[in-house]
Recover the amino acids of this structure.
């Protein structure tokens, strides 16, 4: 069974204090790993897709990286508007799971001014 | 209108009521999903439709009944729910070729409270 574990559960940062979120996964062949941002009371907003180990994607202050066992979401010099819950999801290569995204529980990031 | 739209945004219903959640996508996608999000838990996949055909039902209780009349619309019919069914219900859509499925785009969700 696919497993996705995110850590830490919660992260409190001072504005400008860079940090990283971890997403560890166990899947029978990775088709893709996805990062989402979710604000309270709203649906997840797509950020990145990573397909293979060594791949990196960047968007503003966010950078996602991928290894064979985990992904990191690096937040550089965060601002209060980066406060949100960040979700990681994996999609397996197994054909029967072609449509299934397995999500982690998320990391809630709070950035104080 | 663009993206994925869900209505209503909030719903309070009694355990004997029947209600429906609606989802509409304007992205030209061919797969649609219902997810349940409970506090402090990962998103749980409930139903998947691809080309209007249901392809996965993750052992969801029969009090939840999906309907996909076309590739742009998805419904979740609710009846005789339990208080533990209170959660945020999220609709999503994506494009699939059967070999590769792109990232899913989510609606804003319906906050359901069962009393």
């Amino acid at each position: 069974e696919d497993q996705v574990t995110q850590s830490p559960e919660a992260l409190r940062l001072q504005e400008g204090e860079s940090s990283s979120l971890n997403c560890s996964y166990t899947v029978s062949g990775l088709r893709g790993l996805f990062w989402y941002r979710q604000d309270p009371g709203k649906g997840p907003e797509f950020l990145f897709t990573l397909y293979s180990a060594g791949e990196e994607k960047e968007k503003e202050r966010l950078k996602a990286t991928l290894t064979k066992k985990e992904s990191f979401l690096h937040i550089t010099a965060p601002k209060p508007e980066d406060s949100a819950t960040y979700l990681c999801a994996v999609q397996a290569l197994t054909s029967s799971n072609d449509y299934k995204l397995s999500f982690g529980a998320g990391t809630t990031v709070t950035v104080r001014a | 209108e663009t993206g994925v739209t869900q209505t209503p945004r909030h719903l309070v219903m009694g355990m004997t009521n029947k209600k429906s959640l609606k989802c509409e996508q304007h992205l030209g996608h061919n797969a649609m999903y219902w997810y349940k999000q409970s506090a402090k838990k990962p998103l749980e996949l409930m139903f998947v439709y691809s080309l209007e055909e249901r392809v996965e039902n993750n052992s969801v209780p029969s009090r939840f009944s999906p309907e996909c009349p076309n590739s742009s619309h998805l419904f979740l019919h609710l009846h005789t729910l339990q208080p533990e069914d209170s959660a945020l219900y999220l609709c999503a859509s994506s494009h699939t070729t059967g070999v590769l499925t792109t990232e899913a785009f989510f609606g804003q969700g319906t906050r359901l409270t069962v009393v």
The interface with chain A takes residues 4, 6, 31, 33, 40-43, 45, 48, 50, 55-56, 88, 90, 92, 96, 98, 100-109, 111 of chain B (CB under 8 Å).
